[in-house]
């Protein structure tokens, strides 16, 4: 008997929509400029990946092996991460370009407090923006895949399993 369960693509879309909505709230309320706000989004992502993997185990009634449960969870994380990555790329380049400028200004002020010379920084502002955007995007990709994978792994390990009998008498 085949067990039906929610697709990893649908779950990934839902998770991505949730974290994009929280990110948009942060942009419109300027909370995104605070250093702790990104960790709130990441924590919600980890919890959502855990719940998603747990739901898969519940829908399959625990009969799927650990590897199938983990792979379903990681596929969900991959879908959500790719969608969030594309959103962030568009947000930094088109939707909220002022965000990058604000962050570069904050870095510039911090550099001035540490005694850096202003001449070298102003001539390389465009290069600094590009490096900042690339670093942020790479960080999103790596961090969300690792953290979401950890959430999926925790759910796959802690989910109760039932074993199918291998012989029938």
Automatic annotation (TrEMBL):
<feature type="transmembrane region" description="Helical">
    <location>
        <begin position="137"/>
        <end position="157"/>
    </location>
</feature>
<feature type="transmembrane region" description="Helical">
    <location>
        <begin position="36"/>
        <end position="56"/>
    </location>
</feature>
<feature type="transmembrane region" description="Helical">
    <location>
        <begin position="77"/>
        <end position="96"/>
    </location>
</feature>
<dbReference type="Pfam" id="PF13858">
    <property type="entry name" value="DUF4199"/>
</dbReference>
<feature type="transmembrane region" description="Helical">
    <location>
        <begin position="12"/>
        <end position="30"/>
    </location>
</feature>
<keyword id="KW-1133">Transmembrane helix</keyword>
<keyword id="KW-0812">Transmembrane</keyword>
<keyword id="KW-0472">Membrane</keyword>
<dbReference type="InterPro" id="IPR025250">
    <property type="entry name" value="DUF4199"/>
</dbReference>
<protein>
    <submittedName>
        <fullName>Uncharacterized protein DUF4199</fullName>
    </submittedName>
</protein>
